[in-house]
Recover the amino acids of this structure.
DNA sequence: CAGTTGACGGCCC
DNA sequence: GGGGCCGCCAACT
């Protein structure tokens, strides 16, 4: 199995575990991956996203509930449309983290 | 090998 | 309350 202890693999595994209709922040993914300070690394890891179909990187947003502007991998704010399709409600270009942030035991 | 960058986060002003 | 700066780790040039 994919028991690779690589930092990136951990991050990808966490992102892959994000349920539909929910979002997670970069710091959250980093914390679940093992280290909270990997927030920036998470961003880079998703940037090199080797499997965009298996890794819903669009479910990862900033702690403010806003999506990255550099997410132009499909065309502008396509990420928001994908999240809305998942049932995530957006308000003024931002998602209500209080309601849609992925519930994790790390909290 | 060393310096800089980067899909961020948190603290300071 | 909003904006700006520094800090974290890994990858790229």
């Amino acid at each position: 199995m994919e028991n690779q202890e690589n930092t990136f693999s951990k991050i990808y595994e966490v992102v892959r575990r994000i349920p539909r209709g929910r979002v997670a922040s970069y710091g959250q993914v980093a914390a679940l991956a093992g280290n909270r300070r990997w927030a920036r690394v998470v961003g880079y890891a998703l940037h090199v996203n080797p499997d965009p179909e298996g890794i819903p990187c669009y479910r990862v947003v900033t702690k403010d509930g806003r999506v990255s502007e550099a997410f132009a991998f499909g065309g502008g704010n396509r990420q928001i449309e994908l999240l809305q399709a998942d049932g995530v409600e957006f308000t003024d270009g931002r998602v209500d983290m209080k309601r849609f942030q992925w519930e994790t035991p790390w909290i």
Q: What stands out?
A: The domain at 4-99 of chain A is CATH 1.10.10.10 (Arc Repressor Mutant, subunit A). Strands of chain A lie at 24-25, 60-61, 90-91, 94-95.
